[in-house]
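Problem 12. The chain below contains 262 residues. Write out its predicted structure in token notation.
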Amino acid sequence: MGIQKFIRGILMYRKSARKQMVEQFERIRDNPKPKAVLFTCMDSRVLPTRFTQSDVGDMFVVRNAGNLVPHAKLFGTELVITTEPAALELACVVNKIRDVIVCGHSDCKAMNLLHAVRTPEEMMKTPSSPLRQWVSRHGATSLTHWEKFEASGFKAPLTFNLGSKTVVTHIDPDNKFEATDKLSQINALTQLQNVASYPFMQPLIKTGEMRLHALWFDIYTGEIYYFSQKKGAFAIVNEETSTDIMDEISAMYIHSEKAVAA
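Solution.
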């Protein structure tokens, strides 16, 4: 019943995991080295530390409705002071993290809502809704991309500016997913564009020191997809594809090392 489940969970944690976790805290207490900052959705079905098998101190996780990152042009305007830019600065400037991940997922309720409020008439049904205002304001560019894609019969490639390069992208080329899931994939890439819009990010991205990544989680199959800039598409991560994906990521690191050395 509700919170009681979590109280029982705390008791189980004390018996089975607390000692090991405290030992991990002790090891990293004075010198934590998180490897990435991950922006993902607050959906209770999305458990990033579980599906990445990450551990204490491995990454910062920022969660909100729709894994949205407000564009820099909106920062500081009236009623648009949000935590995401601060989290980005804390991770990438203060803690010098050099990998940013945006992770979307299937059946995203925020993306379903964004898809539903495409018309001004629909938007005005509940103008005081914080959720509708949030997804409409910060998902607007994602929706523009999606409408262009829809107009092509979900076939035409889309172009995303991922900081240091422009990537021609094929969304769901096998047409496996629902229209709203296509929107969710588009949104993950659009939010990476927003990450790259901040002035404190741009020099690092331009030199190649900062690496931008997108993941997409299919909650119904448990499969994870990595956006391959080389292929211009989301590629399933499994035993057959992992070598190519890791090689692509390794090439990004080699480029970063050269940029730092220069």
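Discussion. The CA atoms of residues 82 and 143 lie 21 Å apart. Students who got a different answer should revisit the alignment rule from Section 12.3.
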